[in-house]
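Complex record, two chains
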Amino acid sequence: MTTATEAPALEARHVTVISHKAPIVLGAVTALFALLLLLAPREGLTHFRFATDGDFVMLPSAAVPAMLTAWICVVIAAALSVGAYLSTRAARKVPIWLSVLFAVAVLFGFLAWSGAGSSADFPVSRLLASSILLAVPLVFGALGGVLGERAGVVNIAIEAQLLAGAFTAAIVGSLTDSPFAGLVAAIGAGMLVALVLGVFAITYRVDQIIVGVVLNVLVIGLTSFFYSEVLVPDAERLNSTNRFGTWAIPGLSGIPVIGPALFHQSVIVYIMYIAVPVVWFVMFRTRWGLRLRAVGEHPQAADTVGIKVERMRYAGILVAGGVVGIGGAFYTVVSVSSFGKEMTAGAGFIALAAVIFGKWHPVRAAMAALLFGAASSLQGALSIVGAPVPSQFMLMLPYVVTILAVAGLVGKSRAPAADGQPYIKE
Amino acid sequence: MSHTAPQSEDKAETTVAEDNRWRDAMTRIVSGSWLVSLGAVVLAVLAGSIMIIVTDPGVQAASQYFFSRPGDTFAAMGTAVGGAYYALFIGAVWDFRATDFAGGIRPLTQSLTMATPLIMAGLGVALGFRAGLFNIGGRGQMLAAAAGAGWIGFGLDMPWPWHMLLAMLVGILAGALWAGIAGLLKALTGAHEVIVTIMLNYVAFYLISYLLATPGLLQAPGSSNPKTPPMKSTAIMPDLLGSQYNLHLGFVFALLAVAFVWWLLNRSAMGFAFRAVGENPAAARVAGIDVPKNTVYVMLIAGALVGLAGVTQVLGTVTTGFSSDIDAGIGFDAITVALLGGSQPVGVLFAAILFGAFKAGGSLMQAAEGVPIEIVLVVQSLIVLFIAAPPLVRAVFRLPQPGAKPKKRPKRSARRKEVAA
């Protein structure tokens, strides 16, 4: 009896090194997409506009036959699925570029299908730019989430940190008339929320998820209260920031299509480009990063070799809080120039989803955040061309994808071993 | 067997320290003494008072000449805080301005109306806690249930009790199934229920938004607003105390739900299995309890309870048709209710009534004193934070730490560290 019930437990602990889920999922998506094209064929041309005003080289707009383009994309997607299958058979991981290419192919095909017969065109460059912009708080949130969780602290309070960052950046940015001051203040606000999280979760060992949930409510309450009581009556002085201007990188911004989208942005976007590789480098190539991951995976072992577990965890979440704070500043010193009640609207939870979807890896998490940003920017574009897909379903997509990811359909999502567990020294 | 008895006591102490985090958090919350709860409420109310004081224009005016006449500042502080809490009280408990009993008692009935969905949703979350599951999906479950109940409520023609009961049943089933997705995924693949339920909240929100914006589904005919038509009178929960009060039959269902959950947890075999899984899944499995199956059952019942909250919203409180904000944040308030109530059915009942009173009184406080209702969120969340961290509250009020041995010197330095933190 005992052996019979314990056997599955032992099996469950067996680690599968090669996962065949990636090619299966890619193949399934390709098949579904082909099915959609078969069942709901759409006639006409789809217009893509590649050029933006002031391009160095003006690319012509393209009107492509919708169904043909969509089918070509299906073929490309199928080929990539086969590629994924071959690489898993050769016992290698499916490379990131393959997944990214696959996503682009399916997306492009889907756009071609949904825009068929519409006179409005897809402004490709603007779509890219808005994807990047919508993804900025998500990327910073996800980076912060990865840093915190790799140190063993589950951060449900990303939303709270974003909101606190946005709120503080609005006030300080307005008072000083300097967006840089607002940015610095937002970093401080993110760290402050992280400190509260740390005091309760690390020092008092309250369940981290409970603290996170409660902190979200607390920060929503605090910012909304002070917004109504302080910011609204004195909006001129306290709640109208000077936004960061956009700044074109000479040369790079002249590249057609991606130039204006990627390299004609505000400073925070450039910080994001730098932050992703920096976080990766710090986590995987420095002594500090190794220690950070050690306390998240096996705090006892880390303690044994002399790493101060609690101090390391505090350091991890404080840095994470600062990073999330930058994302919060985006709302009030880049996106718009004033704070609004609950203006982050659940972005923290999408960032959390990106952390899991990105398997607790900074680069993958940032990619996931970009994907979610693209999904929300797409629904705007789809409503312009009058696509046959209700916008609500596009908005739902990141969440459905996350559920699938968590359920293990997209590779294996494994949290750091000691994630969410307080460390109590013997 | 007898030789294990002497060990069990010191074992109980060490397991709390090292065992799984749920149990640790739960024991802290459940075993937190009344003094700690009271201290947490006092601290939270104190923090709320400070927020009122620093934003009150009267206090700001008086503080300009603080050093010449400090008394004025303190008087203004007293007026601001006193006025706010007085408004909170007459909005939540007893209206002193009313001339008769019927008017005086009105705020209390309003508090109970506000508490009704909180009780049921709180029970749903609490049940999850007891089984070691964290159900953050209250919002999605309420929306699913509201859609189901509303669809029956305005779409069908039936005589009174049956129409209402059918609408309730469909709503409860919808809530249960929505939560069941999370339970099933957890049981089959080990997907963390926190993430899945958060994501399901958004999926439900956009799904309901779609249904509400599409003619022929939930949208009221001839309207372009994302709102349903009003419920048919045969589906509405009748008022308990006559039409002058808002309190409706849903409150009775809430009390029944409390009794049901109490019975389930304390008197039924299924509840025993739930608690066993929550206390120690490994031990439960060894004892022959099917953990995945119980996970699904817990989520189904929790979703049904939260769904009932959504049902009472559309059939009792807001019967004139609903939109996608029908959940009114109750799904999240329910978490704080369950935590404050120590995940015990009766505790949840009182915690929900307290928070219902905060909600009812908060609206009057906003209207009469201009104190934004969000202060209630702050006070609520602080109460839960403090209750979850008894050592902090004990340190602030100089209460003895449990298990503290005052003669040992390291203990004192540890306490000092806590005060500093």
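Note: Chain A touches chain B through 53 residues (CB under 8 Å).
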